[in-house]
Amino acid sequence: MFELKVTKHFAAAHNLREFYGKCENLHGHNWFVEARVRSKELDKTGLVMDFGLIKRHLAEVLDLIDHQYLNDLPDFKTTNPSSENIALFIFNHLAPRVKEDSAGRVWLHSVSAWESDNASATYLVDAE
Questions:
Q1: Which of 80, 106, 111, 128 is 20 to 30 A from 26 in CA distance terms?
Q2: Options 23, 41, 93, 128, the catalytic residue
Q3: Per-residue pLDDT of the chain in tens (128 residues, 90 and over written 9)
Q4: What is the DSSP letter of 5?
Q5: Is 23 one of the catalytic residues?
């Protein structure tokens, strides 16, 4: 099994509904995102997938939420923009791009959304 990891940052504001703590107030983060793809085999050039392609797809997905008030976006109108749900949002938008570009040979294994240096949430699939 092979695994590649790419990372990228984005900035966004949010507040957590019905949280009853400081995070219920409007606040922002400089998020750090890790995306990991996996494959059981390499392509004919000896790669899982081109890092540049994965980075481009991740950048396109993050452009959807970068410098946004997440609570105003359709995906978060009724769903709390928690770290967990942000990781899931990124995963759901990135996974089909990875699968399509690799003809199904590579799958997105996990996305971690770090809201600070010491706190993150990860969404992952066990196997493809």
A1: 111
A2: 23
A3: 999 999 999 999 999 998 888 888 889 999 999 999 999 999 999 999 999 999 999 999 999 999 999 999 999 999 999 999 999 999 999 999 999 999 899 999 999 999 999 999 999 998 66
A4: E
A5: yes
